[in-house]
What we know:
- By secondary structure, this protein is α+β, with helices and mostly antiparallel strands.
- The chain is built from 5 helices and 16 strands.
- It has 2 domains: about 5-75, N-terminal domain of TfIIb; about 85-285, Naphthalene 1,2-dioxygenase Alpha Subunit, Chain A, domain 1 (Alpha-Beta Complex), CATH 3.90.380.
- The chain is globular, with a radius of gyration of 19 Å.
- The chain starts with 6 loop residues before the first helix and ends in a 5-residue tail after the last strand.
Amino acid sequence: MVATTDTVARNEWVPCGWLGQIAIGTNLDTMIFGQPIRVARIAQDDYRVVELSDAGTEGRSLPVQTRYNCIFTTLGEPTRALPEISEFDEPDRRIVGCGSVGVSTCPYRLIENFLDLAHLCFIHKDILGDPEKSEVLAYKTEHRKDADEIWAVDCSFYQPAASKASTSGQMTKYIYRVMSPFSVMLYKTVNSDPSRNDAICVFIQPIGETQCLAYMPMALVDDVSTDGDIIEFQQSIFLQDRVILENQRPALLPLDPTYELPTRADASSIAYRRWLKAMNIQFGILEKQAA
């Protein structure tokens, strides 16, 4: 696998491990954008990330940030900061790292799947959706230029079991937030307190153009479920999605609007693809076919 030369992708922060995943004094060898890297835990809260040669020799040191239970790094010079997600700083919330799942597809397919309300009643039947209530109500998308993020607001969908803490079906309100080409989150109605939202994130480690690890940290209002129950619930949902994602063709994302025809329910995906096209990202993108 050859490391990408795409500057747009290289300049983004991406996860490369969980806090506490490795013991002090040990290493984790992994890869981002086709570039082998080593994550070393120097002390309790001190991590070092370096590039590796094909022979395993350590090379250039890379920037490191630790947020949201994850270790982040970049191959380039980021033009955007890591997103601020205030819910992770609220003292009464459950902060749960729901593991990382490997998926053989491009990172943008993962983002779009997360944004897709229409699939909930079919892929996550009787949990996040009901086939008898499959209509996706109109919602709004926004490009918030101050932060350069894509938001989808006023989303609502009937869910039989919206979370592990749910005891009955409900109309769940969603706000989606795409924070970078490789990170997305949603704010979701709390079953026990409609005045607050759970914060559910997916940060993607692009190993290669069609190989990813998806990290799922969550900041929840839930004093009932155990961490194990929450992790099991979230992993089961994601594994249902993985079957679909790994069978999508092409695995790379086409930005030519005539290649895959959208519907009204795909408004957030349309906004996301336009945003990717405007930033001229090349990594993981299907080149337009000549006529």
